[in-house]
Amino acid sequence: MMLIVGKEELPIYKYSMNRFYTILFLMMSFVCAFGHDKESVQELYEYGSYSSSDGLTINYRIISPDSTNIVESEESSYPLIVFMHGIGERGNDNKKQLEHGGDLFSNSSSRQSYPAYVIFPQCPDDYFWSLNKSPKSQKDIMKNQDETPIMKGVIELVENCANTLHIDKNRIYIVGLSMGGLAVYDAAWRHPDIFAAAVAICGAVNPDKLSSITDTSFRIYHGTNDDVIPIEASEAAYNVLKKHDIDAQLIELPDVGHECWDKAFASPDFLSWIFSKSKLHHGIEIQNAIALQP
């Protein structure tokens, strides 16, 4: 069988192969521009571990700024994002914590637009970021308790990075989902001087704790159909933040359950909102986020 193309006769299999390679090229171009497979994401993040003052070893992965499009100097400083994963990514393999969010910060578009350090600590098995034991109900989340050793270690790690890397201390951000969403609130109210912005995805907190926050901007995401952590938890947190005149937004995701993080990540301004925040300009969005310096 022959396919007539203009005046040239081409075997049908040759036409099919040409079409196949064209489609393959377009697919590969799309992946390079907007994302990576899991293996390449793992390769982009360096491995690390930190020994806390309580004797805990905290594994983490970190990616450094892609400074291709900016001029570096001794005085250059970059934002730091701390990503707190959910309960399903706990372990000691130092890999699973990149399952959700790893590609968001490592794809070429994000790295060119928002050069930053991004760190993913991993919570060990049998630990919970901000709770001493597994919560059996919403009431367990609301109970007063001391800062957990693992959260103390994470804060020490953040401070160590801030003091040893070229980090803009006015632009340290924390993002977390589910168990990590609880950790976002916990870190923000216990250490209000550290974080310029906090993003809590399907998290919860005792709202009374949020009164210590003064200049940390909040964005809260929650699915309206969440049957693990009801959306009322985020609504209560948002109401208290607004009562204390904190820069805060609540984004409700209609007809979405607990696993709402991909919907949150897909928000067109997810990254631009984060990187527009600074301790020096609380409540004011900086349009040229890359150029902002302390």
UniProtKB/TrEMBL annotation:
<keyword id="KW-0732">Signal</keyword>
<feature type="domain" description="Phospholipase/carboxylesterase/thioesterase">
    <location>
        <begin position="68"/>
        <end position="265"/>
    </location>
</feature>
<dbReference type="InterPro" id="IPR050955">
    <property type="entry name" value="Plant_Biomass_Hydrol_Est"/>
</dbReference>
<dbReference type="InterPro" id="IPR029058">
    <property type="entry name" value="AB_hydrolase_fold"/>
</dbReference>
<protein>
    <recommendedName>
        <fullName>Phospholipase/carboxylesterase/thioesterase domain-containing protein</fullName>
    </recommendedName>
</protein>
<dbReference type="GO" id="GO:0016787">
    <property type="term" value="F:hydrolase activity"/>
</dbReference>
<dbReference type="Pfam" id="PF02230">
    <property type="entry name" value="Abhydrolase_2"/>
</dbReference>
<dbReference type="InterPro" id="IPR003140">
    <property type="entry name" value="PLipase/COase/thioEstase"/>
</dbReference>
